[in-house]
TrEMBL record:
It comes from Paraburkholderia franconis. InterPro entries: Epimerase_deHydtase (IPR001509), Lipid_A_modif_metabolic_enz (IPR050177), NAD(P)-bd_dom_sf (IPR036291). It holds the Pfam family Epimerase. This is NAD-dependent epimerase/dehydratase family protein. It comes from the Bacteria. Residues 4-226 form the NAD-dependent epimerase/dehydratase domain. PANTHER family: BIFUNCTIONAL POLYMYXIN RESISTANCE PROTEIN ARNA, BLL5923 PROTEIN.
Length: 318
């Protein structure tokens, strides 16, 4: 049995991960900014300091753990109002991450699992699924900060002996999901026509239950040492297929218009949303063969299972 510290334990992914760790018989301490929201059985540690500026001094006396899984981050946001988005993302996602890693290493933690993002590599797959060793080309401040954190952690691990494991998920969905996926469900639920019927781009996604299961393996399996893994559901549906499946589970018709991709790009240029349209209609598939071969990991849930659970949760909120 391992003792795992999870930052962001009361968040969307954090709650799923903590539940999976507890189910597997591990002890869990949740490092959170404010009290409340952790699943039953998680010991709560509150550190409200900005970007973990006080985490070394605040480390609880006697807290010994085998691993830290670092989920907390400044996440990708639309219409960022920060005067310098790169600096804002770096302060949290790079500097804050390094402070937590240093405090963990000083207190005897042997493994640090950093939950990065596929955006640290690219926004599009260029015609073949993205592999862990593909040259990175992040396109926004969030992706650049995640890539910089990966590089800084690797250097820190090489210098100190801390075992750093990097995990890069694509879009994560599941009960309590927010942001774009929730907006898509809102639109389907309301019966709004969506211009997605002709979008044939395939997008890798990961159900939060699958990501939680993979992170348990990365936190506890000796074979994960110093590795970088891409994690996703099996298969990569088209945007249209994903929307139709979601509508079916919501019990709503899928009202999709077959708008050509070229028209969508033009609309994006006219409205100043070219980046959002490119992400919507561009292919982003990830290669998960490394985690499957190295750890023998297979996603325990199908995408259909994940969409069904997500739709059940959404209906319960209406």
């Amino acid at each position: 049995m391992s003792h795992v510290i999870v930052s962001g334990a009361n968040g969307f992914v954090g709650r799923a991960l903590c539940g999976a760790l507890l189910d597997a018989g591990h002890r869990v301490t949740g490092l959170v900014r404010r009290s409340g929201g952790c699943v039953d059985g998680v010991a709560e540690w509150v550190d409200a300091s900005t970007d973990y500026s006080n985490v070394a001094q605040a480390w609880p006396a006697g807290l010994k753990a085998n691993c830290v899984v670092h989920l907390a981050a400044r996440v990708h946001v639309m219409n960022d109002t920060a005067a310098d988005p790169d600096a804002a993302f770096r302060a949290t996602n790079v500097d804050g991450t390094l402070r937590l890693a240093a405090a963990a290493q000083q207190n005897g933690v042997r493994r640090f699992v950093f939950v990065s993002s596929i955006k640290a590599v690219a926004e599009k797959d260029g015609g073949k699924p993205l592999r862990e060793d593909d040259p990175p080309c992040p396109e926004d401040a969030y992706g650049r900060s995640k890539r910089a954190a990966e590089e800084a952690l690797t250097r820190f691990g090489n210098e100190t002996g801390l075992d750093v494991v990097v995990v890069r998920p694509p879009l994560v969905y599941g009960p309590q999901v927010r942001a774009n996926f929730l907006r898509l469900m809102d639109a389907v639920w309301r019966g709004l026509p969506l211009p997605l019927g002709a979008v044939q781009a395939r997008r890798s996604v990961v159900y939060v239950g699958n990501l939680g299961d993979a992170l348990v393996c990365c936190a506890t399996d000796p074979r994960a040492a110093r590795q970088c893994f891409h994690v996703a559901d099996s298969g990569a549906p088209t945007v249209a297929e994903l929307t139709r499946s979601l509508a079916r589970h919501l019990g709503k018709p899928s009202r999709m218009l077959p708008v050509p991709a070229a028209w969508l790009r033009t609309a994006g240029q006219l409205t100043g949303r070219s980046a959002q349209i490119d992400r919507l209609i561009g292919s982003l598939q990830v290669d998960t063969s490394r985690i499957r071969q190295t750890l023998g990991w297979q996603p325990p849930f199908s995408t259909d299972d994940g969409l069904s659970a997500t739709a059940d949760w959404y209906r319960s909120t209406q």
